[in-house]
Task: inverse folding
């Protein structure tokens, strides 16, 4: 059973990058310290309180949708590597629902009867979360559990914000600029009403982060479309309209949505560090949900 999404205040706010007196960013030093801390936590997690080494943790299987765009496979492969960097002793595998190898059933078959946590690289509830992935898991010999979708979550908002800034969004605006600005959150779309609920929640969180209206729109199935959302915002006097790509990786839908942007369009979420942290958070959540209070132990901080 898929765990319910967590409370939205569970993650820290995005950290501001400090500057040295000479003006140089200290991001590289912070990144090194983060990696050292994460790797130390990973090593400590393998030792129990009585000093004995714990068994190998269940494998983390990243479940991607799959795409004919070769950039998608490259992106999710890079994301898997980032997860491995954060927790080197955790077995990390990749499986696709369709279109790309390895397919999820093949990845699960290679695991035999081992334990695994399936973490979908999907941003909301929908058919794949409720039907496809659980059915593939049930058909395998592996002992599996399925984590919650990645969204909604503040770490996704952190990634969306970073991608918008990369595309040219100003982190500081005048009141006049803010009154004329807005964002269309471009998502894939689904017939499942819970998918729309999740996407709208992400739009709300992003609007709070940016201080401007954020309207969810969809590439297929659901309404409004991205062009329709752009038109509606322009009719309200919002002429600086950005399209935020709410896709895990490049593909046809992401490209079509970006082409509808009247101003700037951000890149897909991709292999941003916050995405790797969120994947491990969902993995830890799924494990904790299966443990009793007496046996539950804290996972290493990300």
Result:
């Amino acid at each position: 059973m898929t765990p319910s999404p967590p409370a939205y205040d569970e993650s820290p706010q995005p950290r501001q990058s400090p500057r040295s007196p000479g003006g140089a960013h200290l991001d590289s030093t912070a990144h090194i310290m983060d990696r050292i801390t994460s790797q130390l936590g990973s090593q400590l997690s393998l030792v129990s309180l009585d000093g004995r080494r714990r068994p190998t943790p269940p494998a983390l299987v990243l479940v991607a949708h799959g795409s004919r765009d070769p950039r998608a496979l490259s992106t999710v492969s890079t994301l898997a590597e980032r997860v491995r960097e954060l927790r080197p002793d955790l077995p990390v595998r990749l499986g696709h629902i369709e279109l790309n190898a390895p397919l999820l059933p093949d990845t699960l078959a290679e695991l035999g009867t081992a334990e695994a946590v399936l973490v979908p690289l999907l941003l909301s509830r929908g058919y794949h979360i409720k039907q496809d992935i659980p059915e593939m898991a049930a058909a395998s010999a592996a002992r599996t559990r399925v984590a919650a979708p990645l969204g909604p979550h503040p770490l996704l908002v952190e990634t969306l914000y970073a991608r918008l800034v990369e595309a040219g969004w100003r982190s500081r605006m005048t009141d006049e600029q803010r009154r004329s600005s807005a964002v269309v959150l471009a998502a894939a779309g689904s017939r499942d009403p819970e998918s729309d609920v999740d996407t709208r929640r992400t739009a709300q969180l992003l609007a709070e982060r940016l201080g401007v209206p954020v309207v969810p729109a969809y590439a297929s199935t659901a309404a409004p479309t991205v062009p329709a959302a752009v038109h509606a915002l322009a009719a309200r006097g919002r002429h600086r309209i950005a399209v935020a790509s709410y896709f895990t990786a490049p593909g046809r839908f992401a490209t079509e949505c970006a082409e509808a942007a009247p101003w700037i369009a951000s890149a897909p979420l991709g292999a941003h560090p916050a995405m790797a942290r969120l994947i491990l958070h969902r993995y830890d959540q799924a494990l904790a949900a299966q443990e009793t209070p007496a046996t539950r132990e804290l996972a290493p901080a990300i």
